[in-house]
Amino acid sequence: MSNPELPVVLGRARDAVTPALRAALDTLSAELQPMAAYHHGFAAADGSPTGGDGGKGFRPALAVLSAEAVGGRTEDGVPGAVAMELVHNFSLIHDDVIDNDTERRHRPTVWSLFGVGAAVIVGDALLVLAQQVVLDPAKVLGLGRAAADAGSAVSRVADATAAMIAGQALDMAFESEERVSVARCLEMEAGKTGALLGCAASIGAVLCGAPGGTVSALDRFGVELGLAYQAVDDLLGIWGDPATTGKPTFSDLRQHKKSLPVAAALEGGERGAEELAALLRRSELAEADLGRAAVLVEECGGRAVATEQAKLRLESALGALASASLLPGPASELVELANFVVERQF
Amino acid sequence: MSNPELPVVLGRARDAVTPALRAALDTLSAELQPMAAYHHGFAAADGSPTGGDGGKGFRPALAVLSAEAVGGRTEDGVPGAVAMELVHNFSLIHDDVIDNDTERRHRPTVWSLFGVGAAVIVGDALLVLAQQVVLDPAKVLGLGRAAADAGSAVSRVADATAAMIAGQALDMAFESEERVSVARCLEMEAGKTGALLGCAASIGAVLCGAPGGTVSALDRFGVELGLAYQAVDDLLGIWGDPATTGKPTFSDLRQHKKSLPVAAALEGGERGAEELAALLRRSELAEADLGRAAVLVEECGGRAVATEQAKLRLESALGALASASLLPGPASELVELANFVVERQF
Hints:
The structure is a homodimer. Chain A is mainly α. Chain A has a single domain (8-343), classed as Farnesyl Diphosphate Synthase. Helix content of chain A is 72%, strand content 1%. Chain A has 17 helices and two strands. The longest helix of chain A is centred in the middle third of the chain and has 28 residues, at 212-239. The N and C termini of chain A lie close together (5 Å). The mean pLDDT of chain A is 92. Chains A and B meet through helix 4, helix 6 and helix 8 of A and helix 4, helix 6 and helix 8 of B.
């Protein structure tokens, strides 16, 4: 399937959020700001502006729509949108250190350009800035006063970030395990990817003082959508086109990642599972081994499980959304965005 | 001067705070908890308990006293005390990565034992846990409900953490600069050390809903005390006894740190300053060079400036404290603690 058309909300949210995100980064000290601007694509390595727009902005779009869906204005969701983008980018900068990745979005990663110490400290700075943006948008963004529910919003940001960190730690632990059950793999993905999307899909509503039931339904929508998104990511990590993904072929297999298709294939217990496990025990896999491993993952049902998971989680996300009392316009944009995210690139 | 007697508040605060700190760490996931417990000295590298009590606990004592000084109970200050300890330890774990330090408190650092990636993620986890402890002490610590002013307290924690991170980034930038002015050095130390002590010395009062003027005075007390503390630390970093400090002789000179005595000596502009600058340009200094550099720092007035700074900042801290309306018992314990911190080991 070709890529579906870009939902208009992505552009609309980017227009509303990018200036605020830039303003937030501009409050960082002179040592930190250039590295943060580089990572976000707003500046080149030498500090010169790039005219970058901050990327596709899937999380900010969710945050803005979640404000609009409960009757709030776009700008009511902006502090939450900026916070989500900052937490997401903090995690990317630190994950690149952890995974020793030298490239992201076809550019050198922060640590490979400025050093590991610099990447650690700039990631830390973004994490704290995310909290400040929600607690005091006037000071950081020059926007109006903090929402009445800023305390509740910042609690949700902290809880989602903690869950994301725990998920990342679990993912790191998987690297030294030979087999990972599908259940633990999904637990990891719910933390690493689901928690922050749940927060993004509900934080605008929280900032607008929406009722608890509506907030919970939006959070559930985001968590389930995150699991669908991650299942697609896991499929692309093995069978994605390098031209589209920007990663090498069989990327996740090269890195011995216990992603969902691999976990499911190994758990399947079929004959090929033993051969796959033996291949993955090798410290480095040759190109031919990678191709064989991908075939084995598919033969053992791993591809089918992940494909099914993406469909089921999307259905579940849309079910959660339908259970909430939302304004029809923004609700249908949330549906469009969810479908887009899951249908991309396969 | 020999070490003065340990203020009783340190033991009292430790008894109140350590169980809560342990409870907070126990909420971390199974992958993160053992590394966090190791860093805090509660567990050995293999996870077995050490009976450690969490260290001298200077920041928690400030936090607890700041609650008591405005008429609160010890336990009212505990969530703030735990948060300060968590933020402090997050920064130590990441600083050890940044500085490539293999030992802390005579034990291997987290990164040198578990790897850089593990140290990055466990530091991240402690930073977020600090926020959660203040926002929801019931969930994390099993203590009572969040204070009415939890939102204000968590804002102060975020602002102090951001200032600390900016100070650390400035300190890192100094490494590649040949000279650093005394003014910039003090700016760096106000961020790196002062901000968190200001937060520690006021957070208990914030959690008890104390008036703004009282909170500001306590914050000022902590910031000034932090600058006094750092001046002493800088003196010990050059002339401290390795048996007491646990660091090698001339430790800061070995690492080319632009600490206050060095900055003042280089800025003094006296004849020895050129020789000192030339020595510090060498990538590695021999033992004889280190001894000579220490003599030059002293001859150029760097030791006197830092000694004077410690005295002046302590006076200023005590002045700020005297300006606040505080209960006399806890206030005199704050004075005792401040004197102890500045008089240690010289």
